[in-house]
Amino acid sequence: MRDALDGMTRFDDFQNSLGIAPNMLTRRLNTLVEAGLLERRRYCEHPPRDEYVPTARGRDLRPVLVLLLAWGNKHFAPEGPSVILVNRKTGAAIDPILADAYTGRPLDEPDYAFAAGPAAGSRTRSDIGPPLERPWRGNRERRPPANRDPQTRSK
Question: Residue 18, Cβ neighbours under 10 Å: how many?
């Protein structure tokens, strides 16, 4: 998925990047297509050739992969990270954070907690607690925070 999110689309490119057998790669790509993360598109009829492009669901996975990379670099790379995230334009290394899209505040603050959502069943409600007091904003259009710069944003 990482390679696909970085712009790779062709089977041979995936195989060269991953260094795995074609049958294994075919299974993995089929699984990602079946899960709705990649879309298979035919780009050549003779011989038949497909490319694999991330769907909206697949593109939504990018922040999860970025945060897993940062977490792994922090906790499992005592000798230093083997992969880092950089700004494509400047080449500067970045340190990703998870933030509320509505307020821009980092979600590592102690005033955030899990709560039962609108589709929670009785078991979830009893395990996590009562539903939100305020209406859930999940489907509302989000406004950008006033200041996204983590150096100057007030906490």
Answer: 14
